[in-house]
Specification:
The complex is a heterodimer of chains A (409) and B (380). Chain A is mostly beta strands and 409 residues long. In chain A, the strands form five sheets. In chain A, strands 4, 6, 7, 10, 12, 13 and 14 form a seven-stranded antiparallel beta sheet that branches. A five-stranded antiparallel beta sheet of chain A has the order 3-17-22-19-20, with no helix packed on it. In chain A, strands 9-8-11-5-15 form a five-stranded antiparallel beta sheet. The longest helix of chain A is centred in the N-terminal third of the chain and has 18 residues. Chain B is mainly beta. In chain B, the strands form two sheets. Chain B has a 14-stranded antiparallel barrel. In chain B, strand 19 and strand 20 form a beta hairpin. The chains are: A mainly beta (409), B mainly beta (380). Strand 1 of chain A pairs parallel with strand 5 of chain B, so a sheet runs across the interface.
Chain lengths: 409, 380
């Protein structure tokens, strides 16, 4: 090895040795407080009794005819506040002429009807209750949104019963169908080939069942099996119609006291809350957990065993009842809501940490939140909370936060 | 070729210097302004700091650069393995690397020399974890905190030495203290319904200082040196907002170097620092500041400069008091060192290696450190 080579070897060896130690292992357990840095994390857990300074209830955001489902309830014991509800479905008028063949545009007059078929989408049902049945009644063909539980009472008599449809105990979410005779709608032609039906739930014990609705494209279907004059004789043809109107009705629930906030139910109610959070928290603290605490003034109303989520949403502008809500992604709903079950009486706690963090990110955002039920208007589940007018049951904010760490105390 | 090798090697080391490595130098680094650095060359480290006043490659005595015979560039790298026990908490296998000193210097004329250096004034790097259980909302919740600081305070020095006579040299230096630390505090909760907490910050430090020093060849084979350094206040800003000031200490250093035979050098240096000036500035953090004494002594046998052997043998011992502690008990440090070096490329390159065993005790702490430092010097 020449002297030059040795010089290179020594130099590079030294460099390697100098850099060899760059693999670090430095994280060490602290022996606090003596040998921990003074920059410690202080946690403050506080209940802001005056954190909600204003609240209101607004009703009618989603009516039964606008809901994503139609809930049928049978609770003759009235343990839930809703004794019975009924579904009303009005189908689109059928035409008086039909194509004589599926591959032809030539139409022929409908000369007779053999039968009808009704298909109903079941989207939810009580679990653990066997022997459910759906009773189908004939309703006036021109029924509309003015129909109420009381006004429909005469049409759910034995004389209007079309069919009792048993629900398989194993069915949870599926469609069920039944065939009706041609006599099911005796005034079909005079009604302009329109038909309406009412559906009521029968069960040996309190239960509920939810049917799909046209609002979500999962509605009932009425199929007509007709005979058409093809010119060369009669041919059998069928056609189907969806509803142009569906809703569900129940006897109104008892009205609560005036100082109560209502969330959910049918028509859907929402509660608007105005928050007042100290600037010492919003401006500089890190909120690690914030909970909206709501005290129920009575057991949650609704169909037996039914439940709904109480969702808290921020508004993008504060214009009262019509304040536009900031959309919450579907996968975020579980984190901004809490599940309430009919009959529950426990205090409701909803995590609103993300909401308060949003307020911190943009101080100009209206510090107003809206409580609403999910699904909204499709379930009778209704929670009634104490409002700010009632000191004993008013909503409060429970906030856990970390004040700014003083690195150089 | 040999000069190229030396320069390339030095450049590679120098490239590593700006690297921000996370390295807690001591469990005591969480207190005060941090753990004081030692602006010593590998040779002086091996001699227990005893030769610090007489070593032109160390940044203690502004008169020392008069010892440069050629333009010189030097950098040192230190790797340590550390363990400690305190209050039932034990940590082992901690490993870190630092680059505590880089220096260039040389002669300006026959009677004048200079040195510019950048050294660690105080190390403020730590990465501490702590676990606890708290009662939150009526439930026991486990929490884990992690507090990190990455950085330190650098001492940038410009020194000018003048040979008043063949036996007396004097020097003066100015010091700019500058640095920053990246700070981070985290808390995580075992209960995921509590969001984790994290706060970041960046602190900056600035200050100035000045020093004077001398070297006196009192007798043949006996040198005496001394230096006095005064530093002002260290201003601390956090995210551009001034959050505090620390009174920095005055430093008085004196030492003697004996060379009874060409192949033997004995050195002793003592130093006093008035760290208690900062007592009022650190008491709010639960820290006590002490004035400190330290004394280092070393023995060097052989070496290329003596003409007796190419490979020197260096032994050193140092006792030092530490300036910051969590209570009134003053911690101390014992440092046993062994080193050697080799000259190559016609003595234009020097490679010095030192192994230190450091024992720190006090305030319930038992800290043990193995430290290996490598110094690379190029004299083109």
């Amino acid at each position: 090895m020449t002297r030059a080579s040795r010089a290179w070897a020594v130099s590079l060896g030294a460099t390697a040795l100098a850099l060899a130690g760059c693999r670090e292992a430095t994280t060490a357990p602290g022996a606090c407080p003596d040998f921990c840095p003074p920059a410690s994390v202080q946690l403050v857990d506080t209940v802001l009794g005056q954190g909600i300074v204003g609240d209101s209830t607004f009703i009618g955001f989603v009516n039964g005819s606008e809901a994503a489902g139609m809930q049928l309830v049978n609770d003759t014991g009235a343990t839930s506040g809703v004794t019975q509800s009924r579904s009303v479905i009005r189908f689109i008028a059928f035409p008086d002429r039909l194509p004589v063949a599926a591959t032809d545009t030539v139409t022929g007059a409908v000369v007779g009807i053999d039968s009808f078929a009704v298909t109903l989408p079941v989207v939810l049902r009580s679990q653990g209750v066997a022997g459910l049945e759906l009773a189908l009644h004939r309703l006036p063909a021109d029924i509309d949104t003015t129909a109420s539980f009381a006004s429909l009472e005469p049409f759910f008599a034995d004389s209007t019963l079309l069919m009792v449809l048993p629900i398989p105990d194993s069915l949870t979410a599926d469609t069920i169908s039944t065939v009706l005779p041609d006599s099911a709608f005796p005034t079909f032609d005079s009604d302009g080939r329109r038909a309406s039906i009412g559906v009521v739930l029968r069960s040996p014990e309190p239960a509920f069942l939810t049917l799909g609705a046209i609002e979500v494209g999962n509605a009932a279907i009425l199929t007509r099996f007709a005979r058409v004059d093809s010119g060369a004789g009669e041919v059998e043809v069928s056609d189907a119609r969806q509803p142009d109107f569906d809703t569900f009705v129940a006897a109104p629930l008892p009205l609560p006291a005036a100082d109560v906030l209502r969330v959910g139910g049918v028509p859907a109610a929402r509660a608007v809350l105005r928050l007042d959070i100290p600037s010492s928290i919003l401006d500089s603290a890190k909120i690690v957990r914030a909970t909206l605490v709501l005290v129920l003034t009575e057991a949650v109303l609704g169909a037996p065993t039914d439940s709904a989520r109480i969702l808290v949403q921020r508004v993008s502008a504060d214009v009262g009842a019509k304040s536009p809500l900031v959309t919450v992604r579907a996968d975020s709903i579980p984190f901004r809501s809490t599940l309430v079950t009919a009959g529950a009486t426990d205090t409701v706690r909803i995590d609103i940490t993300d909401l308060l963090t949003d307020f911190q990110l943009d101080p100009e955002r209206p510090r107003v939140v809206v409580l609403r039920a999910v699904p909204e208007g499709a379930s009778f589940v209704e929670a009634r909370f104490g409002s700010t007018a009632n000191a004993a049951t008013r909503p409060v904010l429970h906030i856990t936060f970390v004040p700014p760490v003083d690195f150089f105390r | 070729m040999m000069r190229s090798a030396s320069i390339v090697s030095l450049l590679l080391v120098a490239l590593a210097v700006p690297t921000q490595l996370r390295s807690q130098v001591s469990v005591y680094a969480v207190h005060g302004i941090g753990f004081p650095g030692r602006p010593l060359s590998a040779r002086s480290l091996a001699l227990g700091g005893g030769s610090a006043l007489f070593d032109p490659a160390s940044a203690i005595n502004p008169a020392a650069p008069i010892g440069f015979r050629r333009p010189t560039a030097m950098a040192i790298s230190g790797t340590e393995l550390r363990s400690y026990e305190v209050a039932g908490v034990a940590a082992d296998g901690l490993r870190s690397t630092r680059f505590p000193l880089a220096l260039v210097g040389g002669r300006l004329s026959r009677r004048m020399a200079f040195a510019i250096s950048m050294a660690t004034y105080a190390e403020r790097t730590f990465d501490i974890t702590a676990s606890d259980t708290m009662i939150l909302r009526g439930t026991a919740v486990g929490v884990e905190d992690r507090i990190m600081s990455d950085g330190g305070i650098a001492d940038i020095r410009g020194a000018l030495a003048w040979a008043a006579s063949d036996r007396l040299s004097v020097g003066v230096s100015v010091h700019l203290l500058s640095g920053s630390t990246k700070l981070e505090v985290r808390r995580t909760f075992e209960d995921s319904s509590f969001r984790s907490f994290r706060q970041d910050g960046r602190s900056s430090f600035s200050g100035v200082g000045a020093a004077v020093g001398f070297l006196w060849n009192a007798l043949p084979g006996m040198d005496i040196g001394g230096a006095v350094r005064i530093d002002g206040d260290l201003e601390v800003t956090l995210d551009s907002v001034q959050v505090g000031e620390f009174d920095l200490p005055a430093t008085i250093t004196g030492g003697i170097q004996l060379a009874p035979f060409p192949a033997l050098r004995l050195t002793v240096t003592g130093q006093w620092r008035s760290w208690s000036d900062a007592a009022a500035d650190v008491v709010a953090a639960g820290t006590t500041a002490f004035n400190t004494w330290e004394i280092g002594t070393g023995l060097e046998l052989g070496g290329a400069a003596t003409g007796t052997s190419r490979i020197p043998l260096r032994l050193g011992f140092r006792y030092a008091q530490l300036p910051f502690a969590p209570d009134a008990r003053r911690p101390r440090e014992l440092d046993f060192s062994f080193g050697t070096g080799v000259a190559f490329a016609n003595s234009r390159g020097l490679l010095d290696v030192v192994v230190q065993r450091v024992l720190r005790d006090g305030t319930g702490v038992r800290e043990r450190v193995w430290q290996i430092s490598v110094g690379m010097t190029v004299r083109p």
